[in-house]
Every structure is written in structure tokens, then in C-alpha cells.
Protein: Ice-binding protein C-terminal domain-containing protein
Organism: Rhizomicrobium palustre
Amino acid sequence: MRQFLFAAVMSLMVIAPAKAVPMVHVTVSVIASPSSAFSFDIARSPTPSSYFPGLSFTILGQKTCEAQFDRCDYTNIDDFTYYLEPDGGLKRAAGYAGPDFGGTRYYGDVLFSGDVSAPTFLTGEFTVRDNIVSAFETITITALPDASVPEPASWILAAMGLASLMAWQMRRKAQNAAP
């Protein structure tokens, strides 16, 4: 029985967590109209849907949460374009509009480092100016904790190993009990 317990503990230790993609949470606080605030989660180093060298990159189909952050199901789909200097900031266009049509532009601090083809979001509070009401807004970017979880294949492998050990142990007991 001790051999079985030892093997069971060892097989569970083998389950290695998958490497989770580092994520950030972005909140745009709209001072002029608090009900227009929104937030979303995005990879810390996303792969842009498109980019213009030295100018901007775009992420299409980003799920966002409107104002009621505590009850959000992230069902809104928006497109975001992030800009380098001199204007910085981002532009939000509702999913139906596409990144080149309409939307709200927030001018100000650059929100990422690196090249537009391989950006990495910065964390902290950034001040931007809304192009519609010319009010100063705050964009807060915070790193989310790692949510590493073992891959399903690892769980299946461990379960199969435990089942094999149990079958072996039961067979061994049966053989020892037989005259």
C-alpha cells in the first residue's frame, strides 16, 4: 500500500501547469460621463490584427465591459487602435464601425512599449484627453495574476497512471490471496 501511495503522490507532482499568457486589465474612467466608462482584459503582449509601422496598431474584436464593471459579461465587441507619439493614447470604435470609422479618440500618454508589430502594454495610470468633450480621462492598466492551470492532457495522463497503479495493486492482492 505504501508503494501505491508513493506512486500516486509522484504522479500528481508530474502534472505541470501550462504557461499562461500574461494579461492586463484596462479601465478607462470617463470623468465627463461616468456611465461611458469601460474596461477590458487583453494579453500583455498582444499580436496586432494590423499595424502601421511607426504609427499605430489595431486589435479587432476586443470584448469590453460597459460602466457596470461588477456585473459584466464582456458581451460588447469593440475595435481599438493604439498610437505612438506625438498623440499617444487609443481610439475605441464600436465593433460595427470598424477601426477606421468614428469612435472616441483618447489622446495622451503612449500605453505600450516596443514596436507596433510586437507591443507590450505598460502598467500604471495614464492621462488622456477625450476628443468628443475635451475632458481629461484616466486609463489604468494593471497586471492580472497568473492563472496557470494544468492542461487537460496532464490531468488525463495522471488519472490513467493512477488507474493503472490501482489495477496493478488489486491484481497483486488477488494473486497473493489465491491458494
Observations:
- The chain is about 20% helix and 35% strand.
